[in-house]
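Dear colleague,

Thank you for sharing your sequence with our group. We've completed the structure prediction you requested, and as agreed, I am returning the results in plain text so they can be pasted directly into your records. Please verify that the sequence below matches your submission; if there's any discrepancy, let me know and we will rerun it promptly.
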Amino acid sequence: MGDSQTPLFAFRVWGVIFSTERGATSAEYAILVATVAAVIIVAVAALGNSTLGLFGPVDTFFQTHP
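Please find the predicted C-alpha cells below.
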C-alpha cells in the first residue's frame, strides 16, 4: 500500500516546488539583457569591417566631389 502512494507523493512535492514560481525575477531579466547586449556587440564587431568596405567608395566620392 505504501509503495503505490509514493509516486503520488512525489508528484505532489514536485507540484508544490514548481507552482510557487510566479514570474521572471530582476536577475533573470538582467541575464537576458546582458545576453542581448553581448550578441549585439559581437554582431557589430563582426560586421564592422565588412560594412566599412561598402562605404569606402561613397567616402571617396564625397571627398572628390565637394
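Summary note from our side: The chain has a mean pLDDT of 79.

Kind regards,
the structure core
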